[in-house]
Specification:
By secondary structure, the chain is mostly helical. The protein contains four helices and no strands. The radius of gyration is 23 Å and the shape is elongated.
Amino acid sequence: MIRAFRNLIERQLSKAQAEGQLQGLEGEGKPLPDRSGEAHVDAGLAAGLRIMAQAGAVPEEFGLKEQLAQARKDYAALTDPELRKAAMARISELEMRYNMARDARKSFFR
């Protein structure tokens, strides 16, 4: 079955090339991007995340992670105990929301 599927793919690629459908595509003539970091990720998941990233849609956890990093940076610059206490509460809230978003994504892709 795998051989038949491979042959079907080869025929479709040959047909598309003969019809000129593979000309003028984005990245034509350039080497393929290095995606060695995706070697241990499900191929379907990796492709889906890549498509989302190209479309500008990112999982909520990525935005929360950036907010968390900024909140930690802001906390380090504070000296007033009351402001540090409020900043720590903000960091705790962001950590909780980040962990929830990450766990939700992981359980969705299982």
